[in-house]
């Protein structure tokens, strides 16, 4: 069981006023967005009317939740600079691929979710399987966000854990139930800037405390990680590094399967791009998000390295998840402290809101409407969506304490991704580029890959296979799930009947839907709205970032 955060902040009236102003603003956005909700499309996809810069910031903010802030700092303490792989190879390439290659299929097909795309490409059974696994994953991840938020609020402000969980859940529940995805997205844009306002001063003061970048590097060399804590690729050919990871596991497991599986098929993220006003804006959404993603390690991983050298007992008496709260306690003056606490609260709510808005959409459209109660009036599904929001938050409260078994919540999260995202990506990418793949190959491949991921993890926990660390086990588990899914899909395809070509138009590469109208807007042809140009720019920046730390 992960230890409780033994940190208490000296917050004063000014800090509480700042926190209160933030909560009032969040709820006000929810009430304002409610006036625009007249249909299920408005509730679930913000009426498909938002500009790319709004959806792009919401895209990155939805990912910048509790798991990102506390988890990546914890990774920085435990694994050092190798944590940067999560950003530069584990996020940016997949985000660019989503924008350039996959978003046109999602957006132009007018689907409301990833499972709905799978129904059209394969069959209803594949849709239902993916909808169920996605819903379970979102509830579990929402639980991580809630648990982390409640733990921090309890420790920093002195609120009892139960009160922290309930208050946090009620706030998120209120603004999503009121305003649907519009409310979540506009709040995520606000939360993005609040998070930066809270964490940038923390990083700057932390660097001053350790003597700048050179002072930090020297002290990391003297820490338990040693010189290895300052490098990303060093000793990845033999696994003799803090993560005990081989470069094959990093490149294939994290950089390809886990990363592409998460960013291209995780509906909680894709949903933000689907709310954009046209195809070009939808393609730009993840690409715009890739730029801040390159620099976010400065406020997540870097504070983890600072905490590594300022405090001791990590992994023994000191929980890795304590890194950010400890720095807040010892470095921030009042006022700035209030902004930082608000930033933490904002990050937790942004992450949970993404999980819950994804859950309510998939449950309503892909389980309830598609399989349980088809053919009802639109207002019926709007009501079900709001009820699903309440249920999702309730289930998130229930699963919050599963995360308590992990002193590093990022390890838990990566394990979940290997279960749910890796096999889905295999099914998706094969079905997108191989028109011969049959409907039942989609179902059985996805099921086999998911079972393989669970089997790999259970074998590791039972001591049957030694992957070194839990994190490395998730890399290999993802790769195994991907391989098994592909193999089973190919075998089933060879013995089952493919779909007629007409049913695949607009759903696979090489078969365009001739009936689609061009939805380009004035100005889309300008260079600064070019998905290709901006996408290549993000990839170049990520490579250059690696050049700074090898």
Automatic annotation (TrEMBL):
Domain of life: Bacteria
Compartment(s) of residence: Membrane
InterPro entries recorded: Na/Glc_symporter_sf, Na/solute_symporter
UniProt keyword annotation of Transcription regulation present: no
KW Transcription (keyword) present: no
Transmembrane segments: 13-33, 53-74, 86-107, 128-150, 156-177, 189-208, 245-263, 294-314, 334-363, 383-406, 412-434, 441-460, 475-495, 532-549
Membrane topology: Multi-pass membrane protein
Principal location class: membrane
Keywords: Membrane, Transmembrane, Transmembrane helix
PROSITE patterns: NA_SOLUT_SYMP_3
Coiled-coil intervals, chain numbering: none
PANTHER family associated with the record: SODIUM_GLUCOSE COTRANSPORTER 4, SOLUTE CARRIER FAMILY 5
Family statement: Belongs to the sodium:solute symporter (SSF) (TC 2.A.21) family.
Name of the molecule in the record: Sodium:solute symporter family protein
Biological source species: Nonomuraea monospora
